[in-house]
Amino acid sequence: MNPAPTPAPLVARVVPDLTGLDKQFDYLVPASLRDRIAVGSLVRVPLHGRRIGGWVVALGPPDEAMPVERLVEIAKFSSVGPSAAMLELARWAAMRWGAHRLRPFLVAASPPAMVVAVVVGGRSAVWAPCPHLHSVVVLDEHDESLQEERTPTWHARDVAIERAARAGAACVLVSPIPTATALRWAGDRVVEPSVSDAVAGWPFIDIFDRTDEEPWKRSLVSSALIRHLRDAGQRVVCVINTAGRARLLACRSCRALQRCARCDAAVSQSDDGRLLCRRCATIRPLVCQQCGSSAMAVVKPGVTRLREELEAAAGRPVVSVTGDTAELPIGDLYVGTEAVLHRVRGVDVVAFLDFDAELFAPRYRAAEQAMALLVRAGRLVGPRRGGGRVLVQTFAPQHEVLQAALFADPRRVAISELARRRLLGLPPFRALAAVEGAAAEEFVTATGLEYATTAKGALVRADTWEALGQALADTPRPKGSRLRVEVDPPRQ
Ligand SMILES: [Zn+2]
Ligand SMILES: [Zn+2]
Question: Which residue, 95, 107, 130, 127, is CA-closest to 18?
């Protein structure tokens, strides 16, 4: 009897499940695990004297550069991981969002349990295992929570489109306000509700034109708002995206705008009354740097200051809510940053006190983001047949975002956005990324991409997402630089 021939050694390439470690390592697959380990498997491997989890991303014969004798063995098979197809999708995404980092995508593609029927969930659901994928439906395609905030800044809508295409499955994007990206992808495959259905779904939109008010009366607490505040039967939420007491202050005696002594940026007033530089974090007492006076006029008020003004105008208590508010106090009148729209329920009126800060924000997605705020407010107050009402204070009543909401016709925004973005070479027509950090300019120069410097680094641009991602992933990061690379940056 001949002994069974010894099989050729099998080597597994493993991505360790360690944050910040972007390397892959080779391990020998022991004979006992040969029939269990496949591409995608979750395993445990020894690394730097510890045992850690990881994913097998490739299997094959030994590499010539690394002799088998020097390889250590995989310690343990843990579980079945992402399929080979999902691994390929992860590789595509790692490049598409400008990094060669597979780990974030492998984490997303390795949920605790195997799923075989219908998968429903937030943005990570787009990575869920789902054999024989039939269709992918992305609800509220415009919702910003579909994009990962940490880098790589992948977007579930874009992953869904790619995954469905690879699997030969249908992809449906649903939104009351489709983004320019979705519309360009859809082309002529857009299905719209009837005009009457669209109108019925929206609340009443009241646009308060601030140019009608006398300049000395241009308080954010307008006469239109006061009517709602004083109506004891109404629950009202006021939104102003400025936390603290004030964003801008001027001295009452010498009229100097209050600036940072160190970096010259305009200072804000925090809840404790002191002046805070939002650029360099320098804090100083409430004293004018020109004349020493401590009497200040608020040029741009924040939530804390407005709460006092609103309470005085309403004659009933007003509760303030920001992203930091832990427990929501009970009340009928609220003022807060947009976080308040995620916290309060059962509301009659939402009032945007200074909507121009959203409409004219220096970000390429500002119009879509402003529109999304109106949709969120609309859902909070409900459709017009139930009396739902959104009050918008603005100096730009003819802005297409407001007209679109007023006429329940989001195409007004879509048409102008697509034209503007095509003209300016912005997504979805061209690909954009923000690079932040001290060595940003050195790095973007090395990518060979077109770029412009910004306060925090640089913006880079390419003709396609693939070309952009490839250049960003392939260019070595300068040593010791802690660069942040945001592909399709939501706030630029
Ligand atoms: Zn002064
Ligand atoms: Zn400063």
Answer: 107
CA angle 115–117–119, rounded 5-degree value: 70
Task: Answer whether residue 186 is part of any domain.
Answer: no
The whole-angstrom separation of Cα 380 and Cα 350 is 8
Burial of 413 (0-12, 13-18, 19+ CB in 10 A): buried
Token pair for 343: 């916290």
Centre of ligand 1 to C-alpha 361, Å, is: 30
CATH number of the domain encompassing residue 156: 3.40.50.300
Q: How much distance in Å is there from the Cα of 241 to the middle of ligand 2? A: 21
Same domain, 453 and 317: no
- Regarding whether 90 and 77 lie in a shared domain, the answer is no
Question: How far apart are alpha carbons 201 and 384 in whole angstroms?
Answer: 7
Are 361 and 271 contained in the same domain?
yes
Q: Verify that 344 and 454 share a domain, yes or no.
A: no
478-482, Cβ contacts within 8 angstroms, sequence gap of 24 or more: 478/439, 478/442, 478/443, 481/437, 481/438, 481/439, 481/442, 481/443, 482/437, 482/438
How far, in Å, from the CA of 268 to the mean position of ligand 2?
Answer: 10
The rounded Å distance from CA 260 to ligand 1 centre is: 14
Is 416 exposed, middle or buried, given 0-12, 13-18 or 19+ CB atoms closer than 10 A? Answer: middle
* CA–CA dist 14, 71 (Å, integer): 12
Q: Which tens digits make up the pLDDT trace of 460-484?
A: 999 999 999 999 999 999 888 889 9
Tell me the pLDDT band of 143, cut-offs 50, 70 and 90. Answer: very high
Whole-angstrom distance between the N-terminal and C-terminal Cα of the chain?
72
| Cα separation, 77 vs 36, whole angstroms | 7
Angstrom distance (rounded) from CA 440 to CA 181: 27
Determine the distance separating the centroid of ligand 2 and the alpha carbon of 456, expressed in angstroms.
14
Distance 265 CA to ligand 1 centre (A): 17
Q: What is the mean pLDDT of the chain?
A: 92
Backbone angles phi, psi at 142, to 5 degrees: -80, -10
Distance 270 CA to ligand 1 centre (A): 19
What is the distance in A from the centroid of ligand 1 to the CA of 254?
Answer: 4
Using the CB atoms, write b or e for 462-480: b if 16+ within 10 Å.
beebeebbbbbbebebeee
Q: What is the pLDDT of residues 431-459, one digit of tens each?
A: 999 999 989 999 999 999 999 998 889 99
Separation of alpha carbons 71 and 429, rounded Å: 47
Give distance in angstroms: CA of 257 to centre of ligand 1: 8
Residue count of the chain, please give it: 492
